[in-house]
Structure formats: C-alpha cells, structure tokens
Specification:
CATH superfamily of chain B: MetI-like
Mean pLDDT of chain A: 87
Strand content of chain B: under 5%
Largest sheet of chain A: none
Oligomer: heterodimer
Structural class of chain B: mainly alpha
CATH class of chain B: Mainly Alpha
Shape of chain A: globular
Radius of gyration of chain B: 25 Å
Low-confidence stretches of chain B: 1-14
Number of helices of chain A: 14
Mean pLDDT of chain B: 86
C-alpha cells in the first residue's frame, strides 16, 4: 500500500500501528469535543429519567417524547411557525431582490455603477448589532404594509430588514459575469426583452449560485436573534430563538424541555447543511476569502 | 411592501418603453436595482445616518430632542462600565479569533485529505458552526453548570480538578464565554485552512524533501508562508466581526456577573432599550460603526497593496 502524503508532506508509514493509533485517538478526542456535546442534547431530550439542573444525559434512558410535547405547549410550536414564515418569505425575497440587482450589476453598464457597488459593500459594516438603536427607532416610524401599526411587532418588521444582504448580491453578480453572453444575444435578436432573458436564460443558469445563497440566507435569517428581540413584543410574534431564550430564562421547565426547544432550533439548520453541503462549502470559501 | 409593488411595475414598464429605447436604457438598471436599494436605504443607511444625528441629542420620545453637542460621547467615555466594556470587547475579539484560528489550523492538519473517513469527520466537526448561536448557548449554559455535578465539572472531577465556577464568577466568566465562542468558530476556521492547505502546490513539499528538510522545516518554510494571506484575512475579518459580539454574551450572562462580560453592543443595548438613554446609545453605536469602517478600509487597502 502506498503511503499517502498528508498536508505537511509527511510520508505516513502505513504499516506503523503506533501512528495509526495516535491518529485514531486524536479523532476520538476531536469528536468528543465537538460532537459529543451536541449528542448529549439529543440524548437529554429523549430521556425520561428526571435530571437535576445542570445535568445532561449521555444515553437516552426510558425513551420518551414528553420533553418535546411539553416544549410545544410552551410556545415552541408558535415559534417554529413564526421562524418558518419569516425565514421562508425572507429568503424568497432576499434571493429575488439580490438576483435583480446582480443582473443589473453584471449585465448593464451605467453611470453610478461603482457607487452602487460601494454602497452594497458599505452595508456589510452596518449589521443589526451596530445600528440596533436607530434601527429600532426607524422601525417604530415606518408603517406596516400588511396592517395598521408600525413595523414594530409585525411580520414585515421581522422580515424586511434581513432581505437586503450584500453577500448574495456579490455571489450572484460574480456568477452572472461568468455566464457567456452568446445565449442572451441570440435571444435578444429573436426579440426577447430584458425580463424574459433574465427569467428564462440567466436565472436557470444561476441555479448553483442561487443554491449557495439559499443555504447562507437560510442560516442567516433562521439564526436572527437581535432583530426579533427589537421587533417582537408579544409572545405570538416570537421567533423560535426568542422562545428558546425565554423558556430558559423563566426557569419553569427542566433541562429536558429546554433542550427540546433548542433541538427544534438546531434540526432545520443541520438538515439544510447536510443536504446541501457541497453548495455550502463552495460558498463558504468564496464568501470568506472575499470578505 | 415596496419590494412587491416595484417588481410588478418592472415588466409592463419595460414592454411599453420598447419604442423610446433611450429612456428605457437609462432607467433600466435602476429599475432592477430599486428593490435592493430601497431596502438598504430604509434599513441600513437611514438608521446609520439617523444614529449619527441622534448622537448629538438628548433623545426624548414624544417630548422632542435637545441638542447637547458632544455630551453623549463624553458621558459614555466617562463611564467606567463603558470603558471596561470596551476592554472586554477587545480582549474577547483578540483572544477568540487567535485561539480559534490556532485550533482550526490544528484541526485542519489532522483532518485534511480526500479520504472518506476524513470527509465524514470534517462534516461532524463542522456541526457547531451551523447550529444557531442561541441553541449553542443553551447547551453550554448547562455544560458549564457551576455545581460539582455539572457536565464539564464532572469531567474535571475525574482528573481531580474543579469544580470551577465558570460563568458564575466574575474572574472566570469572560474566559467561559470565550470557550463557547471558540468551540463554535474553530471548525469554521478549519474549513478555510483545509482549503488553503489543499491549494498549496505539492511540488514545493517534494522540492523541500529533496533538499532534506525535516517535517518541522517544511511546516516553517513552506506551509506557513503559503497560508499567510488566507490567515491574515481570516484574522482581521474575525476581529472586525468580534467587535460587535452580542447574542452569545447577552444570552449566556447578560453582561454579568458584575459587568464582567459586558461588551460594547450589550452595553449599547441596555443603555438604549432598557434605560432609554437613546442619545448616548446612538453615540456609542456611531463610534463602533466608525471603528468598523476604519478597520475594514485598512484591511481592504492592505489586501489591494498585496495583490498589486
């Protein structure tokens, strides 16, 4: 068996048992540090044995769904629904708006283009954490398009601030620039307008980039905490992140129920990640290396 | 809603404008950009500028604002709690970014490679990154339970250490928070380094091996220099992001005990939302924004200089 070359250019003697054993031990250590804690969360949720405060189960004993059903009784159902609506609508709008803007940036030449790119870049320096206080005041001024009051305590208030995001605009603009112009030119010669070219030619070709943006957009909106904290004022508007933190702050429920709520928050992200891992990793690299 | 109406206007507007093509050409790009720019305008630029404006006022909802000049800035700078919040933020950002890059690099060395079991291990180790911060915090809140029967303390007990107070003691609270942050971010850095390692030309290793370089020399003179651009970007962007840390601190400790984990953003949030000092909170946010802008520009400038 040929010895594989590792990153360091070390030639690992495949036959040496000692080295293999050390490697296996390190693998086990790494799994114990990064995966075991997540596993104890799952085990605790499905464990029927009562646990003291500050205790977690390692193996689920007396398997039960009680913790999950209790958690659903304490607002997790509503939180899940709100988070799903906010993430679904927010992600759809985010991809649409970003693809529109990317089409103009990648395919049109116009005065002010550099300024628009600079504006998009500058929004990366204006995350909710930095503009929380004035954003809160602005949301209190703007009317809710779906109802009577302001954007505070409204679905539009939970969704609209996360729709505009620089990352998908960048990813899609970059991707569209790599699409050859020939197809579009022949369609234009046949009399197709901009919108038809965009919808029927450019967008379908962008599917891989859209997938990457969808994974990142999902995680970004699903994990939102500060924005719902500012916007949602009544329990019926709480997203799942708020339900989870309120449940643990109230101290009414045991560790099993609290972990059940956290598990419901974790499962969708993990499923999206595992299902679309390839898209995720390619985006992670381009995104983080470009900033 | 501006988004939806704008989009509906786009299609008919373009068909109608087919004859006077010039006008359509000029307006075209802006119609495509309008939804995004409107959203950015309402939810990014307006709040940023409004925050700068409010920094100079005593903000009293319904009563009218009073101009106070630099008073808000002076008030924040004169507050011991704010100064220690700045210190905590800088320490937290510097330490977590450095350690998670270091651990991420070690993980990358261990888990780099195309083999199936390595791919699986990398996927498993990456799970903390995709898990929502709030869920991570809930889990660690229990893992770090200060009693002797808390999960981490039980482990420490096995080797005769502890129990440690972790989050409940001002002396160990910030370190405990950083532990959680590093746990969540080190696998992220690992993926970046795995890609960086994979991109290194293998011939460099072979040349070094021919020259009789030891494993350590190859690491020192081939691997690390090759990774330097990636590393620097990861570190600088990490620090910039670290300066706005909020969720994990606010949920884990609320800034306590005794202000020992207060950061700039938790301080701002409490001052603005809980204590209604909106002008002062805006002033602090404005300073944080300007610091972010300066650091980002420096990073971009430095990167451009390298590329030239």
């Amino acid at each position: 068996m040929a010895a594989p070359t590792t990153a360091l250019g070390l030639r690992m003697p495949a036959g040496r048992g000692a080295r293999a054993a050390v490697r296996a031990l390190l693998y086990a250590l790494v799994l114990a540090v990064f995966v075991l804690p997540l596993w104890t969360m799952v085990a605790t949720v499905f464990s029927g044995v009562p646990l003291r405060l500050g205790e977690l189960a390692v193996l689920p004993r007396e398997f039960t769904f009680d913790n999950l059903s209790t958690a659903f009784g304490y607002g997790v159902g509503r939180g899940l629904l709100n988070s799903a609506v906010v993430t679904g609508v927010g992600l759809f709008l985010q991809l649409t708006v970003s693809a529109f803007a990317a089409y103009a940036l990648a395919r049109k030449k116009f005065r002010g283009q550099a300024l628009v790119l600079l504006a998009v870049l500058s929004t990366m320096m204006m995350p909710e954490e930095v503009i929380a206080i004035p954003l809160y005041l602005v949301l209190g001024e703007l009317p809710d398009p779906l109802g009577g009051g302001t954007l505070l305590n409204s679905y539009a208030g939970l969704v609209l601030p996360v729709v505009g995001w620089a990352l998908p605009v960048y990813v899609l603009t970059g991707f569209m620039r790599t699409i050859p112009l020939e197809l579009e030119e022949s369609a234009r010669a046949d009399g197709a307008g901009d919108f038809r070219i965009f919808a029927q030619i450019v967008l379908p070709l962008c599917r891989p980039a859209l997938g990457t943006c969808a994974v990142f957009g999902f995680l970004m909106i699903w994990d939102q905490y500060l924005l719902p904290l500012l916007v949602a004022q009544t329990p019926d508007m709480y997203t799942l992140t708020l339900v989870v933190t309120n449940l643990s702050a109230s101290q009414e429920q045991g560790v099993g129920v609290r972990m059940a709520a956290s598990l419901m928050l974790m499962i969708p992200s993990v499923l999206v990640y595992l299902g679309l891992q390839r898209l995720f990793e390619s985006g992670l690299l381009s995104g983080s290396l470009k900033g | 809603m501006a988004v939806l109406t704008k989009r509906r206007e786009t299609a008919p507007a373009r068909t109608a404008a087919r004859r006077p093509r010039r006008l359509a050409r000029a307006a075209g790009p802006w119609l495509w950009l309008a939804p995004l720019l409107l959203l950015f305008g309402f939810f990014k630029f307006w709040p940023t500028l409004w925050g700068m404006y409010l920094s100079f006022f005593e903000v009293r909802p319904y009563l009218g604002n009073t101009w106070t000049g630099w008073e808000n800035f002076a008030q924040a700078l004169g507050d011991d709690a704010f100064r220690s919040a700045v210190a905590h933020t800088v320490i937290d950002a510097a330490v977590t970014v450095t350690l998670s890059a270091g651990i991420g690099f070690a993980l990358a060395l261990l888990l780099e490679g195309p083999a199936r079991h390595l791919r699986l291990l990398r996927t498993a180790v990456f799970l903390p990154v995709v898990t929502a911060m709030v869920a991570v915090v809930e889990l660690w809140n229990t893992l770090l339970y200060p009693g002797a029967h808390g999960p981490l303390n039980s482990l420490l007990g096995l080797v005769g250490l502890g129990p440690l107070p972790f989050l409940s003691d001002p002396d160990s609270s910030l370190a405990s928070v950083m532990l959680v942050q590093i746990w969540k971010s080190a696998p992220y850095d690992m993926v970046i380094f795995v890609a960086g390692l994979a991109a290194i030309d293998r011939q460099l290793y072979e040349a070094a091996a021919l020259d009789g370089a030891s494993a350590w020399q190859r690491m020192r003179h081939v691997t690390l220099p090759q990774l330097r651009p990636v590393t620097t970007i990861v570190l600088t962007l990490g620090v910039i992001r670290g300066l706005r840390v909020f969720t994990e601190i606010y949920v884990l400790t609320g800034g306590g005990p005794a202000g020992s984990t207060e950061t700039v953003v938790t301080y701002t949030y409490k001052a603005g939302i809980q204590n209604n000092q909106l002008g002062m909170a805006s002033a602090v946010s404005t300073v944080l924004f300007l610091v972010t802008v300066v650091l980002t520009c420096l990073t971009l400038w430095w990167r451009r200089r390298r590329e030239d």
